[in-house]
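Hi support team,

I'm opening this ticket because the web form for multi-chain structure prediction keeps timing out on my end. I have pasted the exact lines I submitted so you can reproduce it. The total is 760 residues across two entries, so I didn't expect it to be a heavy job. Is there a limit I'm missing, or should I split the entries? Thanks in advance, R.K.
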Amino acid sequence: MPVNTIAIEVLNVSFTENQLTIDWGDGRKSQLAAIWLRDHCQMPESRDPISGQRLLNITDIPNDIHIAHVEQNNDMLTIDFAPESHQSEFSLCWLLDNCYCLNRQADDRSETGKKLWLKSTFATQLPRCHYHRFCDSADSKRFALQSFKDFGFVILDDVPCHEGEVLNVIKQFGFVRETNYGPLFEVRTKVDANNLAFTNLGLGCHLDNPYRDPVPGIQLLHCLQSSTTGGESILQDGFMAASILRDENPQHFETLCQQWINYRFQDANTDLHSRVPMFEVNEKNEIIKVRYNNRSIGSLNIDPDQVTKFYAAYRHYAQIIERESLQVMFKLNPGELMMFDNTRIMHARRAYSKGGVRHLQGAYSDLDGLYSTLSTLKQH
Amino acid sequence: MPVNTIAIEVLNVSFTENQLTIDWGDGRKSQLAAIWLRDHCQMPESRDPISGQRLLNITDIPNDIHIAHVEQNNDMLTIDFAPESHQSEFSLCWLLDNCYCLNRQADDRSETGKKLWLKSTFATQLPRCHYHRFCDSADSKRFALQSFKDFGFVILDDVPCHEGEVLNVIKQFGFVRETNYGPLFEVRTKVDANNLAFTNLGLGCHLDNPYRDPVPGIQLLHCLQSSTTGGESILQDGFMAASILRDENPQHFETLCQQWINYRFQDANTDLHSRVPMFEVNEKNEIIKVRYNNRSIGSLNIDPDQVTKFYAAYRHYAQIIERESLQVMFKLNPGELMMFDNTRIMHARRAYSKGGVRHLQGAYSDLDGLYSTLSTLKQH
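Hello R.K., no limit was hit. The queue was backed up. Here is the completed structure from your submission:
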């Protein structure tokens, strides 16, 4: 977060009943509504000093709240509100840092806060970090988690090839999301597998578990053994693919934002359904989440007049996803662990031979825990 | 799910290149696009017979796919596709059950699949279930989980007053969502609490953790001890409150759907942010999720010309939430556990005395696991 500096000698404070105006003297101006100021009062009767949580409810504030008086004393403003006779003190620094006229509306899930990538972005190397550094050095962990946030993935090297180690990796930044597959799941060829992931078939680019709501935000895959031929991993940026679709055909992009579809997974003990769009966007139409998994789209139940339109958009996106220029391919070797944002980064696997052994352990986690850890590391 | 019956003797099948038409002979008609039929092929080369997952990608299907021939044989249709020479067999029952012209677009999160309630809905009793029946009887568990789905909450009685039992309750239907508060959290008065929940203050109606994305879908609160004066629990239906807002002022409802805001929670080891709307709706503008917590709205960073509009809508919703006609109030006694949909049901607590002991243990889970368990119980 950039540090805002203020020059008290040049700024100018004025007010009307409904609004406080601060001319910062450098071309910037804040105009803050009386209701917003009262609602953001930082005094101990309005905010709990320990937790920082609001103690007042919006309905505790009179509907006709207004500013009665403002007084500046160095870097502090004292505001008297009426008709309740309440006094709030704000530091000018706080007002500058929190002013809704001047600060970005931060949305850490949106495409605008990420570095969208193509295969060529990683011509020299992929984002990687040694696991022991990840565990022992705050700087290394911050670097790795920032790579994850920017690019949506990072590879950890030299993760001990112990069964269950993937769960220890998660404890380094967040919490395990257990599912019907267990706290972790084994990826190796199974007889009568309940999911194609557990066969030796190739799998096209996809995101995991779109039939789950909420979808797990992070997937980790830890390679314990790999002596098969084939089985290479492919990653690609679903946000980049969606942004290319938007460039090539805005109507197709719109369709995948607006058409909700059913995903489903079913076995003897599980029956998961969701109804969600392929692309989620925020209020500024920025991409914040993609869901794409051809294997687990349920029976498509959409309005009859939308069927042709939906398939055209879906096909177009699938074609973009298959472009080699979007895909990085590498073989995950024993001791390597890839972790990726399962709301953004698609993964695929090439088919592998029946001879030899390929054994990965996978697990899920959530983005909020990782982002919290990264944010805390940045503050220290 | 209603069982569809078909009368083979009266139905009529016809086709064009682009569409299959089935007149079911009872006034119902299905018109199914060639691309949809090919994409939903149930043959073993298109669908894995064990997992039911699709083996083909949309890009494997020619863009000019069309129907070359259809043949009916009792309750089976054989469809020949061109230009790929592919043959699919569908049972007429399957087509009727999955036809997008005739079946509801199921969204189990939407208000339309719920029973929205007021205080008067529970004039005689709240939805309750004895815990030992919940564990031992599939019918009782189905009843309790269906109450949860319909009303958004259920109370379990006679849950053993053992520390940690709340985690065993979750194992009965799903999985624990661990957070920075731990796998479970203690609700009792703490010195220097990092969250107002852990004080003896009253708490207004709210949903938990809107600063977390994804938000935990289920909260459980298990009462172990209660000898204080006060501390009554209040529940109320946030979907009902939102639907009342929509009736009273559609523009206010729209504002809370469209205006995204920041929520935040911060302590020494945690820094959680989200940017989300108060109301989420699906593509039909049906409510699917509410987020409301006055304590943890971050610095409101919205477009300056939206501030007044937002506060008017927010205040209106807060006023509806405070209406007694929407609130059920009861005292949670030792051995009672309430579980509620944290995307819908607001909870509140009245302040309690410093004398006496009040000790609850709480934990979070997710809706998908519970809905899956309910769906599986209904099938058996």
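A quick check on our side: The longest helix of chain A spans residues 307-321. Let us know if the file doesn't open in your viewer.
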